[in-house]
C-alpha cells in the first residue's frame, strides 16, 4: 500500500465532512422534522444526529456530542422521542438530505458519474473504520446504506465524520479540555464556530464562556486578549495530529490515489454547495 502524504486524510475529511453538515442548516430538515412533530431547532439537531443510537436519554447525547450544555440537552431529550420515534426521525432526515443535495448541487451533479465514483470511494474508506470506543460512528454503521448514489455518498460521509469525531473526543479528554474549553480554544484558532453561534446553539452563557477563557489563560493557553499563546497553538496542533493518528485507518485503506481522488471530487461538490448558500456567512470566525 502506498503511504499517504502528510495530513492527506485530514484534507480528505475536511472536503467530505461539510457536505454531511449541510443538512443541519437546511430548511428541508426543519420542514421534515416539523412534519413528524419536532419543531424546536435544538430538539431537531439532537434528534436527527442522535436517532441512530435509538431513544437514548440526555446523558448519552451530552456524552457523545461533547460540547453542548447538558441543561440544554435535558430540556429536549428524552422528551423528543415522544414526538417521533428514532426510525421516523431517520427517515425524515434522509428525505431532507435528498432534497437538500438536489437543491444545493443540482440534478446533474446528483445523477453524475462523479457522484457514483465519490460514493464508491467513500464507502470503500469506511470498510476500515472500527466501532470500539466510537459510539456515534458505531450507531450509524448499523444503518443500511441507501441505494441512490448521492444518499450513499452522504451516508459514507456521515460514517467518516463520526469516526473522526469520536476519535477527536478521545484527544480532547487526553488534553484536559472540557466541553466549553474545547469550543473556546477552537474558536480562538479562527477556524471554529463564531461566538455568536456557539452561544445561540450550544446552551452556554457569556458568563460561562468568559470563565472558560479565564481557565485557559491560567493554563497559559490564551493571552490577555483571548488569543492562543504559543502553547495554545501547539495544543490545538497536537489535538489534530492525534486525531489524524486515531482516524488514519480509513484513508490508509483507501490508499493515496483513492484519497486524492475522493478529496478532489468532494471538494468540487462542496464548492458547489457553498456557492448555493449551504452555510450561514457568519458561521466561522
Automatic annotation (TrEMBL):
Domain of life where this protein originates: Bacteria
Short name of any one Pfam family annotated for the protein: HTH_67
NCBIfam families: SCO6745_fam_HTH (NF047719)
Designated name of the protein: SalK
Organism: Streptomyces beijiangensis
Amino acid at each position: 500500500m502506498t503511504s499517504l502524504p502528510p495530513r492527506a486524510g485530514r484534507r480528505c475529511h475536511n472536503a467530505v465532512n461539510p457536505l454531511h453538515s449541510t443538512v443541519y442548516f437546511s430548511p428541508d430538515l426543519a420542514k421534515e422534522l416539523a412534519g413528524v412533530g419536532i419543531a424546536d431547532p435544538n430538539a431537531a439537531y439532537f434528534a436527527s444526529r442522535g436517532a441512530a443510537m435509538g431513544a437514548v436519554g440526555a446523558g448519552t447525547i451530552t456524552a457523545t456530542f461533547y460540547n453542548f450544555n447538558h441543561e440544554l440537552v435535558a430540556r429536549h431529550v428524552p422528551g423528543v422521542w415522544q414526538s417521533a420515534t428514532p426510525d421516523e426521525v431517520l427517515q425524515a432526515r434522509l428525505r431532507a438530505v435528498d432534497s437538500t443535495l438536489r437543491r444545493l448541487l443540482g440534478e446533474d451533479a446528483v445523477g453524475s458519474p462523479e457522484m457514483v465514483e465519490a460514493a464508491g470511494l467513500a464507502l470503500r474508506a469506511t470498510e476500515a473504520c472500527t466501532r470500539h470506543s466510537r459510539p456515534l460512528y458505531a450507531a450509524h454503521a448499523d444503518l443500511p446504506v441507501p441505494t441512490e448514489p448521492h444518499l450513499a455518498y452522504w451516508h459514507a460521509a456521515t460514517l467518516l465524520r463520526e469516526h473522526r469525531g469520536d476519535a477527536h473526543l478521545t484527544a480532547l479528554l487526553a488534553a484536559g479540555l472540557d466541553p466549553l474549553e474545547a469550543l473556546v480554544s477552537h474558536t480562538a484558532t479562527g477556524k471554529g464556530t463564531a461566538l455568536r453561534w456557539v452561544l445561540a446553539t450550544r446552551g452556554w452563557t457569556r458568563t460561562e464562556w468568559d470563565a472558560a477563557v479565564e481557565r485557559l489563560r491560567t493554563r497559559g493557553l490564551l493571552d490577555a486578549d483571548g488569543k492562543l499563546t504559543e502553547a495554545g497553538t501547539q495544543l490545538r496542533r497536537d489535538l489534530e495530529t492525534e486525531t489524524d493518528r486515531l482516524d488514519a485507518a480509513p484513508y490508509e485503506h483507501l490508499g493515496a490515489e483513492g484519497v486524492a481522488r475522493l478529496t478532489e471530487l468532494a471538494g468540487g461538490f462542496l464548492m458547489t454547495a457553498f456557492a448555493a448558500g449551504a452555510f450561514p456567512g457568519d458561521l466561522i470566525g
